[in-house]
């Protein structure tokens, strides 16, 4: 079953976004910045120092949610990649190894591991990302699930389409069994999962 879903994950995510979703940047968004790279690096370092003051050594976490911690670690890894540095490699390795046991499969962390892998070329990050992705895949809506309006981990049915597009490729929020009736699909789950799949495919190809 899991293997079948992995194959579906690849198929769905390969093709569905091509015709069901529009991921282009809206033309009215202003994507230019008046700041130079140096100025942005300076800003980032200041922000990092500020947020780091709430680092809790015993937890190995900043006092925020696990998802927010994942975002922070991602930003640090992306930063090191941009400046071609490894200054935060040890801290990130340590952080991830301490956080890992606490993780129910959170797709955001899969993405964090991808960013870390890209920054530091450490295969452990990539393997972790793949594990998280595999754990998360059963929560994805396959093409057949969408057509049938049902999902093996859910005890409620749902519409096959949303805004005229198939709901296939949607990824439910990971829930313990008692929340089996919840159909929540949220951006942090969905976006991170899709980005993770694409990045893993790219890294392994
Ligand atoms: C976009 O932002 C830049 C930098 O802030 C500014 O110089 C420019 O005028 C903006 N362009 C538009 C179309 O608003
Ligand atoms: C963040 O805080 C920890 C623990 O106090 C310290 O070891 C680390 O160097 C700090 N990192 C940054 C980027 O300030
Ligand atoms: C973490 O933040 C919450 C509020 O955001 C606060 O109530 C709590 O005391 C903080 N915990 C620590 C260890 O700082
Ligand atoms: C199709 O959905 C129904 C509930 O509407 C469910 O009982 C059935 O098991 C589903 N079939 C498949 C193949 O998923
Ligand atoms: C689905 O499962 C949950 C948790 O076991 C339960 O509270 C809820 O009543 C179930 N819903 C249906 C429609 O069976």
UniProtKB/TrEMBL annotation:
Residues 1-20 form the signal peptide. The keyword Signal applies. Keywords: Signal. This is Uncharacterized protein. It comes from Cerrena zonata.
């Amino acid at each position: 079953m899991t293997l079948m879903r992995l194959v579906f994950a690849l198929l769905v995510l390969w093709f569905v976004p091509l015709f069901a979703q529009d991921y282009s940047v809206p033309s009215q968004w202003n994507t230019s910045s008046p700041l130079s790279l140096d100025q942005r690096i300076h800003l980032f370092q200041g922000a990092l120092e500020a947020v780091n003051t709430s680092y809790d050594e015993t937890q190995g976490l900043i006092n925020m949610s696990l998802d927010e911690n994942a975002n922070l670690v991602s930003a640090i890894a992306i930063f090191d990649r941009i400046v071609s540095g490894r200054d935060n490699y040890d801290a990130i390795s340590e952080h991830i190894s301490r956080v890992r046991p606490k993780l129910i499969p959170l797709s955001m962390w899969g993405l964090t591991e991808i960013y870390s892998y890209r920054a530091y070329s450490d295969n452990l990050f990539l393997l972790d990302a793949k594990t998280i992705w595999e754990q998360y895949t059963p929560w994805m809506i396959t093409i057949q699930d969408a057509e049938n309006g049902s999902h093996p981990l859910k005890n409620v049915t749902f519409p096959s389409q949303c805004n005229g597009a198939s709901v296939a490729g949607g990824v439910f929020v990971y829930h313990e069994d008692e929340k089996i009736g919840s159909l929540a699909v949220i951006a942090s789950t969905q976006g991170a999962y899709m980005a993770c799949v694409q990045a893993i495919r790219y890294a392994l190809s």
